[in-house]
């Protein structure tokens, strides 16, 4: 099945006014640990230390392949790079139009974070793009045109991310101070009101963990014989969607604490549609088919197939809008849908696409199925791509979500 | 020769008042790159981005052994741990007595950095000690006793440091936000006035690079047949000492920009004496003797021996005092000398000491002499420790330098 995504861009392009009052909503699933004191102050409340979401222990880490090897993320992240490139001008436009620099004390360091940054080089391009937009904004609107703030850029990803590769491949002529922040973006990462811009590119689709019911034989959501939700039943889809919604509640809850008033959050996410049909014929479909074939051949057990699920969810614009509104701390400045291209088959490129998927999923797959079958799995996957006449590069579209902290 | 260090503690224990006015002195060897704009403001000046010391290209990286293997720093850093433990109470005392918390806006995040932190676990103990002292100070003297600031702790080391090991071994119940900062402490690392406490434990003895004259046959400082300066001629010693002085000028220049008024710098450094005799019979002596023996056997070439120098310098309290005074931005609150213990030989422990040195110097030695002779080199080194009746654990004493930003 080919993509049939309808043109949704214009209808989500406008700004939304939230009816919520300014507050730091504590979602129901957030537990403030006993070790952390809360004391009343003029700034609502002060939390001494990191809040722990109740399901913190369930946040799992799925690092991209580190290093610079042939299957590394650093060498196989062209698609994420394309996504960054596709929204580059939109992001610049949004920042130069909407960032409230006059709300920030002029002596402040300007702090930017890329959450879920992996190892580079994409994160460096994304950050540079933001920096150029912010500099332009200061040059155009700053009270003193010569005075640019100092920039501090935080690169965030799980603690198992390959920060060594990230740090040794930093751009040599960067005009910002660098820091790496290990930890999940589903949890609190930064001090209160300490960030001016949060970006994230192709990271938020990773859910914090696979909901238990997907691997529970007694649950109607049991995802038997499948590896993700595209062709699954309604209960399975709902389990994925609910997990994503919970994860977004945590994400916006924590970012609302970290971002200053007037600060912006710009998210690029591979998006899907609520009817899910759009997911057919994607690289994920071909990967599922590969794993099913290996199970049929007896190379992996049926049990292993049934207990494996890709921890990614591709939200619709409506789902993202709903999550932001539930949180209530951000105004929606723009939700833009950019359609993914359909890819005409080209046998020469099959290996490239296969390696691209391998860079992102090998850790996950080898943890579950064993390192020893990775070559066979990806060889078969490559063949399936070669045999496929037309497939979707992505899942439906890239979703750009631009928010401002109220 | 055994240690003959005189009791210097008391004479350096008092506070010194600097005659310098408050300023950000730009040392002669600092070059503000063309890419960086300077514009006048009420805060003296604002530099858009990272300053580049003129000798930046000469800053070399000597990472400790990463990971958790048998020769890793993480498993072989007991001596650094002992040093941290030895000054633990003194550091607590200094912070609780002298930190000017009422100078810091109450809404500020309290930012701490450990420069030259390596991979842990020592850095976590050192940081925890500082945190406890700061918390005590706030509880005792804060205007609102219940209100503790949020803490953000930066772990700094060269970009080739094993941050992956550091990040995956962070204490689970830490009550601070974490960030890793890659880069040399001989350069600028942080935005202006963004740090409240800087600590460093057993790191500042690493000089930024070996002065050229040490390997220049035509120079009187040529360090032929030796690997460090303990038994070298006056010219060689001077070259080491001058390099250390320049490095300290950079260190204090950059830290002065980064630390807020009232903020503190607490440094633990393996110290030596100006007469250098104290360096005899140390582990460094035994290592030099090992390398010389390998050269005599023809296992390493004479040229390789002549061109190798350990890039460490063990300053006297007088040298540290002079460096702080040249900078002029810090008051000296305390310089304390804690004598290193003499170690009675114990053959069982020889391997432990050898592995300790290997964790810190293997990168350097294998880069120069080749990885393939490391086992032989350290086996011989271990034998030399076994045969030695008494040796100095350290070089003379631990030096605790406590400063406050004026």
Describe the structure.
Chains A, B: This is Probable S-adenosylmethionine-dependent methyltransferase At5g38100. Chains A, B: InterPro entries: MeTrfase_7, MeTrfase_capping, SAM-dependent_MTases_sf. Chains A, B: It comes from Populus euphratica. The structure is a homodimer of 406-residue chains. Chain A has 406 residues and is α/β, with parallel strands linked by helices. Chain A contains nine helices and 13 strands. In chain A, the strands form four sheets. In chain A, strands 7-6-5-8-9-13-10 form a seven-stranded mixed beta sheet, with helices on both faces. A two-stranded antiparallel sheet of chain A has the order 1-4. In chain A, helix 3 links the parallel strand 6 and strand 7. In chain A, helix 1 runs parallel beside helix 2 and helix 5 crosses helix 9. Chain A is globular and about 70 Å long. The N terminus of chain A is likely disordered. Chains A and B meet through strand 6, helix 3 and strand 7 of A and strand 6, helix 3 and strand 7 of B.
Features:
homodimer; about 400 residues; seven-stranded mixed beta sheet; two-stranded antiparallel ribbon; globular
**Averaging pLDDT over every residue of chain A, what do you get?**
81
Query: Percent of residues of chain A in helical segments?
Result: 25-40%
Shape field of chain A? globular
Count of helical stretches of chain A: 9
Structural class of chain A: alpha/beta
Which runs of chain A of at least 5 residues are low in confidence (pLDDT < 50)?
Answer: 1-57
Q: Say how many strands of chain A there are.
A: 13
Largest interface: A-B, 46 and 47 residues
Euclidean distance between termini CA atoms of chain A: 42 Å
The string of secondary-structure elements of chain A, in order, is EEEEHEHEHEEHEHHHEEHHEE
Oligomer: homodimer
> How is the main sheet of chain A built?
7 strands, mixed
Strands ordered across the widest β-sheet of chain A = 7-6-5-8-9-13-10
Percent of residues in beta strands of chain A: 15-25%
Radius of gyration of chain A: 21 Å
Pfam family, one (chains A, B): Methyltransf_7
Keywords (chains A, B): Magnesium, Metal-binding, Methyltransferase, Transferase
GO molecular function (chains A, B): metal ion binding; methyltransferase activity
Protein name (chains A, B): Probable S-adenosylmethionine-dependent methyltransferase At5g38100
